[in-house]
């Protein structure tokens, strides 16, 4: 048997530059989706996933909804393509559900922090050098998948504490450095994985 390491073309295009970050922020500011002087938090929703029961999805959405109520937080939601917009709007009434035409890269680059459970889009956020908080509620340990992010939140108190820390730019940079080990373990030659 012969194994050949290949890359994912989708990930090769994920290269963070200050120009791309500024353009994404300007675009979402112009559309009034993100806010200055607030911590813009992007939730990568996966309410369609069969990995979690209906009750577990309710717990995930309840935790995320509580973030929208925190002072100084602007919560945005990027739905999975298989999700219904009505479901997210119903469960996250105080959040901004992003229009589907906003790309994942633009949504991530425009935000300060990304939150999700076990989405591969979390890896893309790491490649874009945006801090990721992984929702790891009690009882989820065996279903988080192979992506185990260094910063995890297990409930409302840990989420508040983690977001409070990430209001500081130096803490966001530290979080990105911590994630780099995971990125290196998961992605071969980031930005060049499909080259020979």
Oligomer category: single chain
Low-confidence stretches: none
In whole angstroms, how far apart are the ends? 20 Å
Q: Give the H and E element order.
A: HHEHEHEHEHEEHH
| Count of DSSP-assigned helices | 8
- The average pLDDT is 86
Query: Nearest-angstrom radius of gyration?
Result: 16 Å
The chain-level structural class is alpha/beta
Q: How does the overall form come out from the CA principal axes?
A: globular
Share of helix, binned:
40-55%
The biggest beta sheet is recorded as: 6 strands, parallel
What is the number of E strands?
6
Strand order of the largest sheet: 3-2-1-4-5-6
Query: What amount of the residues lies in strands?
Result: 5-15%
Keywords, separated by commas or semicolons:
single chain, 196 residues, alpha/beta, six-stranded parallel β-sheet, 8 helices
Question: Summed up, what is this model?
Answer:
The protein is α/β, with parallel strands linked by helices.
What can you see in these coordinates?
The protein is an alpha/beta fold and 196 residues long. The chain has eight helices and six strands. The chain has helices at residues 9-12, 18-30, 54-68, 85-91, 104-110, 121-127, 156-165, 169-186; strands at residues 39-44, 73-78, 96-97, 113-116, 132-135, 152-153. The protein has a six-stranded parallel β-sheet with strand order 3-2-1-4-5-6, with helices on both faces. β1 (39-44), α3 and β2 (73-78) form a beta-alpha-beta unit.
């Amino acid at each position: 048997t012969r194994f050949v390491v290949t890359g994912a073309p989708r990930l090769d295009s994920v290269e963070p530059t200050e120009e791309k970050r500024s353009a994404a922020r300007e675009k979402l500011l112009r559309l009034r989706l993100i806010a200055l002087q607030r911590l813009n938090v992007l939730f990568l929703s996966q309410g369609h996933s069969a990995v979690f029961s209906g009750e577990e999805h309710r717990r995930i959405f309840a935790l995320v909804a509580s973030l929208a109520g925190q002072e100084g937080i602007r919560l945005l939601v990027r739905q999975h393509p298989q999700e219904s917009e009505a479901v997210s709007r119903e469960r996250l009434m105080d959040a901004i559900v992003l229009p589907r035409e906003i790309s994942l890269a633009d949504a991530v680059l425009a935000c300060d922090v990304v939150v999700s459970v076990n989405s591969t889009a979390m890896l893309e956020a790491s490649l874009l050098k945006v801090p990721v908080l992984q929702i790891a509620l009690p009882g989820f340990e065996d279903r988080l998948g192979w992506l185990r992010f260094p910063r995890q939140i297990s409930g409302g108190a840990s989420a508040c504490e983690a977001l409070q820390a990430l209001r500081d730019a130096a803490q966001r940079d530290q979080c990105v450095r911590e994630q780099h080990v995971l990125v290196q373990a998961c992605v071969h030659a980031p930005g060049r994985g499909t080259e020979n």
